[in-house]
Amino acid sequence: MSLVSLKPILDAAVQYGYGQGAFNVNAVAQAKAVIEVHEMFRAPAVLQGADLANGFMGGCVDFTKATLEDKKRGAKRIADAVRKYGENASIPVVLHLDHGRDFDSCKAAIDGGYTSVMIDGSSLPFEENVELTREVVKYAHERGVSVEGELGVLAGVEDHVFAADSTYTNPLKAVEFFKKTQVDALAISYGTMHGASKGKNVKLRRQIPIAIRECMAHEGITGGLVSHGSSTVPAYIVKEINALGGDIQNAYGISIEELREAISCGINKINVDTDIRLAVTRNLKELFCGRPQLRESASVGDVYRLLEANKDKFDPRVFLPPLMDTVMFGEVKDEDTQAVMECVEKGVKEVVGTLIVQFDAFGKAPLVERPTLEEMKEYYRKNEK
Questions:
Q1: CA 84 to CA 79: how far, in whole Å?
Q2: Within 10 A of 306 (CB to CB), how many other CB atoms are there?
Q3: Dist CA 159 CA 87 (whole Å)
Q4: Which residues have C-beta within 8 Å of that of residue 74, sequence separation ≥ 6?
Q5: Rounded to whole angstroms, what are the CA distances from 134 to 127, 239, 279?
Q6: What is the DSSP letter of 252?
Q7: For the chain, which terminus, N or C, has the lower number of CB atoms within 10 Å?
């Protein structure tokens, strides 16, 4: 069946009390792997393309300089890949824009085939954030597409998203934001951080989602609460990367125990990106260590050289530009390229499969209603104030 919007998946997560992982993808092979591992565990799937991931998939190798046209091309390519592997899947599948930076980025994603978008106005004053989010909600809901907003600021770095310090979300402001914008989900700041360096033994302020949930219930507001910057940064993967010649330092994530507690306190959607990047990077290093003849391969040798030149990096987008046709379109021209893509897929499945189990999302796909986007358009038309 067709891809679905985020709202019914979050409604199920709220009702049944499990955590819905949301996993960032930057290549066709990653989209394929995310969907396949969710099918294996019979879990609902939320794939995310970040704003700059669209730029990268649009062919802009230096994705920090991606233009709107790059993002439009990339949004369609990611959507095409997700539809290819997701439309006939036995589970509900969502394609969600992560950290849309402005209305045009969100529009490009929706027009390209995304079924859910996030607009990040968290750096703006409250009323400006409300107005920007309302503008996106209007455009999206008219097309049956769900919307996630953000209130509060997370410290750390991820693509173009940067903040030196966190500003925790005010629960009363969160309720006001839901009322004024009609968003389907809200990303909150309660102690998580973007990037791989979150600090040791992070303790989340669970009283924040608890308070927001209590206020929402009092006001009769429904919606999902989202945890950004929630990668666990597995220590064993970091250790393995460094043993293979990498130089990843001060890499600490949010513990599984903290995230499971957060789920019980009202968090429904948990965003993960860094863990996938680390696992793929580890696998690539292992490939070239175990099969040194690939270092001189005409098709993938440059991937090895980029790995060696960037020992402190773990974003596969740094290493995979020599294979951009494969990244963007899934075209595998030879056995060497296939070996690299298998590394990518296995890394994704290792991380995503682990977290599906840890978040208790396995077996939950049959619990999710699957309205079409046309049906969601009608829902929003009848229920919007």
A1: 8
A2: 17
A3: 29
A4: 49, 53, 54, 55, 56, 57, 58, 59, 60, 66, 112, 328
A5: 10, 44, 37
A6: B
A7: C
206 within 8 A of 29, measured Cβ to Cβ? no
pTM beyond 0.90: yes
Residue 27 CA, distance from chain mean position: 13
CA distances from 10 to 86, 113, 124, 149 (A): 18, 20, 26, 14
Measured in whole angstroms, how far is the alpha carbon of residue 266 from the centre of its chain? 19
The maximal CA–CA distance of the chain, rounded, in angstroms, is 64
Three-state DSSP class for 43?
coil
CB 326 within 8 A of CB 337: yes
pLDDT band, very low/low/confident/very high, at 200 (cuts 50, 70, 90): low
Residue 256: both structure tokens together: 């599984």
Compute the mean pLDDT over every residue in the chain, rounded to the nearest whole number.
93
Distance CA 369, CA 159 (A): 33
Closest alpha carbon to 97 in 85, 107, 87, 83: 107
Contact partners, residue 304, CB within 8 Å, separation at least 6: 288, 294, 295
pLDDT digits (tens, 9 = 90+) for 301-313: 999 999 999 999 9
Catalytic residues: 98
Give kind and range of the element (H or E) at residue 319: helix 316-319
Calculate Rg over the CA atoms of the chain: 20
Residue corresponding to tokens 């979150």: 198
Q: What is the C-alpha separation between 132 and 26, in angstroms, rounded?
A: 26
Confidence tier at 155 by pLDDT (50, 70, 90): low
3-state secondary structure of 300: coil
170-184 pLDDT, tens digit per residue, is: 999 999 999 999 999
What residues have CB less than 8 Å from 230, skipping those under 6 apart? 192, 254, 259, 270, 271, 272
Q: Pick the closest to residue 130 from 139, 141, 122, 140 (CA basis).
A: 122
Classified as helix, coil or strand, 47 is: strand
In whole angstroms, what is the distance from residue 107 CA to residue 112 CA?
A: 8
* CA–CA separation, 326 and 329 (whole Å): 5
